[in-house]
Amino acid sequence: MFDLAHILDVLIESYPLFIKGLWITLKLTFVSILIGTGIGLVFALFKISGIKILNWIANIYIALIRGTPLIVQIFIFYFGLAELGISAFWSAAFGLAMHNGAYIAEIFRGSIQSVDKGQMEAGRSLGMTYGLTMRRIILPQAFKRALPPLGNQFIIGLKDSSLASFIALNELFSIATTQGSRTFDEMTYLIIVGFYYLILVLLFTLLVNLLEKKLSAGE
Amino acid sequence: MKKEMIRIENLKKSFGELEVLKEVNLEVHESDVVVLIGASGSGKSTLLRCINFLEIKNGGKIVIEGEEIDPKSHNLNEVRQRVGMVFQHFNLFPHKTVLENVMEAPVLVKKLNKAEAKKEAISLLGKVGLSDKADVYPAKLSGGQKQRVAIARALAMKPDIMLFDEPTSALDPELVGEVLATMKELAQEGMTMVVVTHEMGFAKEVADEVVYMHDGQIWERGKPDELFNNPKEQRTKDFLSSIL
């Protein structure tokens, strides 16, 4: 079963196919994380706004997303958005973004609330508005603190993107399953695709660590 | 008669059931230094925080430079530009250098251009004796230096009134002096100041009026001489003997 020479052979000969899938996975992850971070920030601000209606909206959103399986969400987005003529890629991207957004909202909320209350007071006492103090003083500090859990969530997001294979998107994982069933060599392809994900995650971790170091300069 | 900078009438503030300020009346005139003393929990910090609306009063009137400020209809950001505040825990912005801390509000709020703001910030840092720390991050400063930066940061908005909320309480004893010296200099230049402090030496030397608060009320007030040497109220006597 673990014929390393065989796995290496398949790895080398199949790489053009996998690179295509890898590219889609990367695009999907990047887009969904970017939108998800935006969504997360908005809902985090809703949650700390102290405005009841915004609070409720954020709570309902987070409860719905956390309370249902991602695969269900992806299918709902896929079938829902297909009617509007939106492609499988973008339905998967939106689905993943909405999903990540809920978790990122909680990460941001926690990190914003962990910034000392005195920072907001100092900003306000200088005549800065709530929004300005939030943007210039609180969020830069909060973002720095959010980075480790955010990096973690990004890694989860990257791996979760494999679920997009269920809506016929030719990303990394779907390449492995189609090749596996075509050649009856499933195990080899699964090991190979696992290897691709592992490399991606390691590279990504490295990137987050570098960013963390850069942001902590001066403190 | 000097101009009235702050007038407080029947000010009330509660946190839930807890009545922290009960009908406080106070007026502060231009260039005066008013020192608030009292045990912790007496309401002195809350009173200070009500003056720049970090806490919103539950009743009474707050008049700043002749204008009654209603937190519902007034632009509090504009009022706060005229009323600077220095905090016990400095609250410097840790992700910004000393210079950026001082420049931040003038650039963003007063829309001063950066070159001009920088020039003023450097001159203010010179005034508090920290010209050489302009490019340092706050984490690298001692407590006394941090507090002096915080004073420079508040002064950068060119406030008419400065509030100090226990500015030396978080400092190591050997660093208290440098902050008090900066405050004293500011008082001598004619800044209107309201100071909550436990530094009785500062109160005696610099204050025009000392206000003793107890249980959410102004219990006794007077010239430092009178209040320290000849307090009329038994409570004031007890408080003074407990700290001196």
From TrEMBL, chain A:
Entries under SUPFAM superfamilies matching the protein: MetI-like
GO cellular component: ATP-binding cassette (ABC) transporter complex
NCBIfam families for this protein: HEQRo_perm_3TM
Family: Belongs to the binding-protein-dependent transport system permease family.
Keyword DNA-binding in annotation: no
Subcellular location: Cell membrane
GO molecular function: transmembrane transporter activity
Residue intervals of the ABC transmembrane type-1 domain: 22-208
Protein's GO biological process: amino acid transport
Protein name listed in UniProt: Cystine transporter permease
Superkingdom classification of source: Bacteria
Signal sequence coordinates: none
Keywords: Amino-acid transport, Cell membrane, Membrane, Transmembrane, Transmembrane helix, Transport
Organism listed in the record: Fictibacillus phosphorivorans
Cross-referenced Pfam families: BPD_transp_1
Its membrane topology: Multi-pass membrane protein
InterPro entries: AA_ABC_transptr_permease_3TM (IPR010065), ArtM/GltK/GlnP/TcyL/YhdX-like (IPR043429), MetI-like (IPR000515), MetI-like_sf (IPR035906)
Phylogenetic classification of the source organism: Bacteria, Bacillati, Bacillota, Bacilli, Bacillales
Transmembrane segments: 22-46, 58-81, 87-108, 189-211
From TrEMBL, chain B:
Provenance organism: Fictibacillus phosphorivorans
The family this protein is said to belong to: Belongs to the ABC transporter superfamily.
Annotated GO CC locations: plasma membrane
Name the record gives this protein: Polar amino acid ABC transporter ATP-binding protein
Domain ABC transporter: 6-240
Compartments, record wording: Cell membrane
Main location: membrane
Keyword Disulfide bond carried by entry: no
Pfam families membership: ABC_tran
UniProt topology in membrane: Peripheral membrane protein
Matches recorded under PROSITE patterns: ABC_TRANSPORTER_1 (PS00211), ABC_TRANSPORTER_2 (PS50893)
Top-level taxonomy: Bacteria, Bacillati, Bacillota, Bacilli, Bacillales
Molecular function per GO: ABC-type amino acid transporter activity; ATP binding; ATP hydrolysis activity
Keywords: Amino-acid transport, ATP-binding, Cell membrane, Membrane, Nucleotide-binding, Transport
